[in-house]
Design goal:
With 400 residues, the chain is of the alpha/beta class. It has twelve helices and 14 strands. Strands 2-9-8-7-6-3-4-5 form an eight-stranded mixed β-sheet, sandwiched between helices. A four-stranded antiparallel β-sheet has the order 10-11-14-13, with no helix packed on it. It is globular. The site of pyridoxal-5'-phosphate has 14 residues, from helix 4.
Length: 400
């Protein structure tokens, strides 16, 4: 019998989804959702999006409805270059590539530099979407633990050295410096500088994923890792998914001219360009200043929900549970003392009541089932509170 799967890329067929995914119920409409990394849907600027789309089409439909440049609209790339200055990044518009989501950035970068058996590093834990992109690529994925400052730099160096000695040097390191998904914490400025120095020493690329940079509730804005890059070792990506809407599928890349040119060619060969209507909407949304007003409004709301989640955890969780205290982003990370609660039993117990993202989705191995990512942005405040209480009750019920 014809087995078509034998023709598939072995990187794809050997990929094992996290154990928890067979039990997770994050699509359950009856449950309170603390699982997805979504903006609050009540506040999607849908009327504004409709207005901007209509106006843009009336003004410029022959361009918007046609094919266009593979790196995206020049005016939007110029806006991105200008916007990047806030993060200490000096870029020109031709160092920017627009693509259909930063998930696509990851795939394009993997296609650009990773050949079968090449090594790449992710933080442990790391964003579940990125884990599945890189695990289904041809690369060998190595996860390196985090300390209070960011990725453990000594362990990263040891690995880079080991790979260099093996003749198959480390090629790519994927880092989320601001309001990490799932931890909610940020890499210190010192560690950002050390990362660039190490990339220069061992000649690997850093893919800096900055999806949550605008969602800062306390503290200073920190310079990007890319701000310390003097010779093209850092590829930066951020997205319109959180400050506008994920359904528009639009993100950007800032990279050296050589890398931006190569990624633009790959983007072109993948699907011509990022979708034009989304680009036209984002352009008006940014140029007319709506983006910063929206971010300001959402940050007040998200800070309130984050504080409420922290307070509810404080009041209801047993003392064998700990969690991070983020100053921005969408998430916090909960750890249940090892051996106290079975992670799969917890999923079964909470089914239909409250959903969260089980910790094993953030690892390339089977670890992490005693850890949970909670999102505080999506549900209204009363459900954020209720969800945490339901989760605490389930943990206490199952505790050994
Ligand atoms: C860290 C991180 N990177 C990338 C993405 C995906 O972004 P996009 O919607 O642009 O593909 C997410 C989505 O949750 C994320 O948390």
């Amino acid at each position: 019998m014809f087995d078509v799967t034998k023709m598939f890329d072995p990187a794809l067929t050997s990929y094992k989804p996290p154990k928890s995914s067979a039990y997770a119920s994050w699509g359950d409409p009856g449950a309170i959702s603390l699982s997805g990394g979504y903006p609050d849907p009540e506040y999607y600027p849908w009327e504004l999006i409709g207005k901007l789309a209509t106006e843009a089409l009336a003004k410029d439909y022959p361009r918007i409805l046609a094919y266009g440049p593979s790196n995206g609209f020049a005016e939007l790339r110029e806006w991105v270059a200008e916007h990047s200055k806030q993060n200490g990044v000096e870029a020109k518009a031709d160092e920017v590539v627009l693509c259909d989501g930063s998930t696509e950035t990851m795939s394009l970068v993997a296609r650009l530099v990773l050949q079968p058996g090449d090594a790449m590093v992710m933080e442990a834990p790391s964003y579940s979407g990125a884990v599945s992109v890189f695990l289904t690529s041809v690369a060998h994925v190595e996860q390196i633990p985090m300390d209070e400052q960011g990725i453990d730099i000594a362990k990263l160096e040891a690995y880079a050295k080991e790979r260099k000695a093996s003749g198959r040097p480390l090629k790519l390191v994927y880092i989320m410096p601001n309001y990490h998904n799932p931890l909610g914490t940020s890499t210190t400025v010192e560690r950002r500088k050390e990362l660039v120095a190490m990339a220069q020493k061992y000649d690997f690329l850093i893919l800096e994923d900055d999806a949550y940079i605008e969602f800062r509730y306390e503290g200073e804005r920190l310079p990007s890792i890319k701000a310390f890059d003097t010779d093209g070792h850092v590829i930066y990506t951020s997205t319109f998914s959180k400050p506008l809407a994920p359904g528009l599928r639009l993100a950007w890349i800032v990279a050296s001219p050589v890398v931006a040119g190569a990624l633009s060619r790959l983007k072109g060969s993948s699907n011509m360009s990022a979708n034009h209507l989304g680009q036209a909407i984002a352009l008006a949304y940014c140029k007319e200043g709506h983006i910063y007003k929206h971010i300001e409004k959402m940050n007040a709301l998200y800070k309130m929900k984050k504080d409420l989640m922290l307070k509810t955890l404080e009041e209801h969780m047993p003392d064998f549970v700990t969690w991070t205290k983020p100053s921005g982003g969408f998430f916090l990370w909960l750890e249940i003392e090892e051996g106290r609660v079975d992670g799969i039993e917890l999923l079964k117990e909470t089914k239909g009541k409250v959903t969260y993202r089980p910790g094993d989705s953030f690892y390339a191995t089977e670890e992490g089932l005693n850890k949970l990512r909670l999102c505080f942005t999506f549900e209204p405040a009363e459900k954020v509170e209720k969800g945490v209480i339901l989760l605490a009750e389930a943990i206490k019920k199952l505790a050994k």
